[in-house]
Design a protein that fits this description.
- The protein folds into two domains: about 130 residues, Aspartate Aminotransferase, domain 1 (Alpha-Beta Complex); about 260 residues, Type I PLP-dependent aspartate aminotransferase-like (Major domain) (Aspartate Aminotransferase, domain 2), CATH 3.40.640.
- Helix 4 runs parallel beside helix 10 and helix 11 packs parallel to helix 13.
- It starts with a helix and ends with a helix.
- A hairpin with a 2-residue loop joins strand 13 and strand 14.
- With about 425 residues, the chain is an alpha/beta fold.
- It is globular and about 60 Å long.
- The strands form four sheets. Strands 4-12-11-10-7-5-6 form a seven-stranded mixed beta sheet, with helices on both faces. It has a four-stranded mixed beta sheet with strand order 1-2-3-15. It has a three-stranded antiparallel beta sheet with strand order 13-14-16, covered by helices on one side.
Length: about 425
């Protein structure tokens, strides 16, 4: 079957993320991947600036991850986790407990990031229910947040500027504070937390938890904020006896310059959601971790049964690759690599801040975003092909042109990505 026949079939029958079957998006067929490069069906290669939505931190076709998958598939690719266990899950849980904050001692493996958030919400509500605090069923979060596409996760995404406003009438009603705006601790003012403080003060009796993306609000606009905000939130949660859930699904495993973003505030959540880069981008797996306090609290009513159990929970193949991915990361000079990426992104993208089309340029760790004054969604009929013709893969959305490359990217390949961003801006300005 030729490439064009594949694409015709795809457009007619296969739904892609956030797309319409009546007006299908421009799609490019990938047939192989190696390092930071994706190979198109026509033989061209393009540099992946997206790490397959934050996940492929080691690049593609990594020999150690490949070998781990091959060894595991010859032993056991899957077995139900109900009533059974296996070494890959035990080994991965040990590693997660070792590398996260000391109080996080319990691990619940899930299928995806969205489900990790669902489980976190269930944990928080069940915790309160077991304490006899049955009225504590709501959550407090901030605007511009994003936590996933399932119903529980959608309910704590931004209700106004998020992607799920059409479902508003059927979603649980939670509380939203203004998004944090302070970028540096040096600029902190108490007013930055005042509305959040007022909400938790007035509603703590009905709040099971606060949920936040630490340091970086991701799909909600790729906005950065200062560690002091997290410290203040942690203190308020302690003061009002409200659990703190941190959604690290996009920021975990080094993306912001520390292994976990919450480390920059020197705090510990009660519940932690991990995902995306957990397997190095090889397959779907996520985890929800919690403290002994939460686990014991859920058991306080005498049963302690957490009401969740996915069919593919703790899939051995995914757990084995995830363990190897963590080893690959920790054995590398990942912190220096991310620092070098950050320095180059800053040097090469900040000059675009002066462009008439550009509202802001932001860089943190291996994350860079150029925010434009106007949305570019109406340009997506030609823009994906224009991007591929630059020899790169970048996926803009709304008014954001952003990249989060694999940690193994070299200077030349990263420069090709930043030059392509400049070309995108210039091309858009012509229209």
């Amino acid at each position: 079957m030729e490439q064009n026949e594949n694409l015709i079939f795809d457009a007619k029958h296969i739904w892609h993320p956030y797309s319409s079957m009546e007006n299908p998006p421009v799609i490019h067929e990938i047939i192989a991947a190696e390092g930071v490069r994706l190979t198109l069906a026509d033989g061209r290669t393009i540099i992946d600036g997206m790490s397959s939505w934050w996940s492929a931190i080691h690049g593609y076709n990594h020999p150690r991850l490949n070998q781990a998958a091959k060894q595991q598939i010859d032993q056991i690719s899957h077995v139900m986790f109900g009533g059974l266990t296996h070494p890959p899950a035990i080994d991965l849980a040990r590693k997660l407990i070792d590398i996260t904050a000391a109080p996080l001692q319990k691990v619940f493996f899930t299928d995806s990031g969205s489900i990790a958030v669902e489980v976190a919400i269930k944990m928080a509500i069940q915790y309160c229910f077991a304490q006899g605090q049955t009225k504590k069923q709501r959550l407090l979060t901030v605007y511009n947040g994003y936590h996933g596409d399932t119903f529980g996760a959608m309910a704590v995404c931004d209700p106004i500027n998020g992607m799920h406003s059409m479902f508003e009438s059927v979603l649980p009603k939670h509380l939203f504070a203004p998004a944090p705006t302070c970028i540096n601790d040096e600029d902190w003012q108490d007013s930055d937390i005042s509305e959040f403080r007022q909400l938790i003060s007035e509603h703590h009796h009905e709040l099971a938890a606060v949920i936040l993306e630490p340091i970086v609000q991701n799909t909600g606009g790729i906005r950065f904020y200062c560690p002091e905000y997290l410290r203040q939130v942690r203190a308020l949660c302690n003061e009002y006896d409200v659990l703190l859930i941190l959604d690290e699904i996009a920021t975990n495993f080094g993306r912001t310059g520390t292994l976990f973003a919450y480390e920059q505030a020197d705090i510990c959540p009660d519940i932690l959601c991990l995902g995306k880069a957990l397997t190095g981008g090889y397959m779907t797996l996520a985890a929800t971790m919690c403290t002994d306090k939460v686990a014991q609290g859920i058991a306080a009513d005498g049963s302690g049964v957490l009401m969740h159990g996915p069919t593919f929970m703790a899939n051995p193949l995914a757990c084995r690759v995830a363990s190897e991915s963590i080893d690959v990361l920790l054995e590398s000079d990942w912190q220096q690599n991310v620092k070098i990426i950050e320095q180059q992104l800053t040097a090469e993208l900040m000059p675009y801040k002066a462009h008439v089309m550009v509202k802001d340029v932001r860089v943190k760790g291996a994350i860079a975003v150029v925010e434009l004054h106007k949305p570019i969604d109406d340009q997506m009929d030609w823009l994906p092909t224009f991007i591929v013709d630059q020899g790169v893969w970048i996926r803009p959305f709304r008014n954001l042109v952003y990249i989060m490359p694999p940690f193994i990217i070299n200077e030349g390949d990263l420069r090709q990505l930043t030059v392509a961003i400049g070309n995108i801006i210039e091309k858009l300005s012509e229209g």
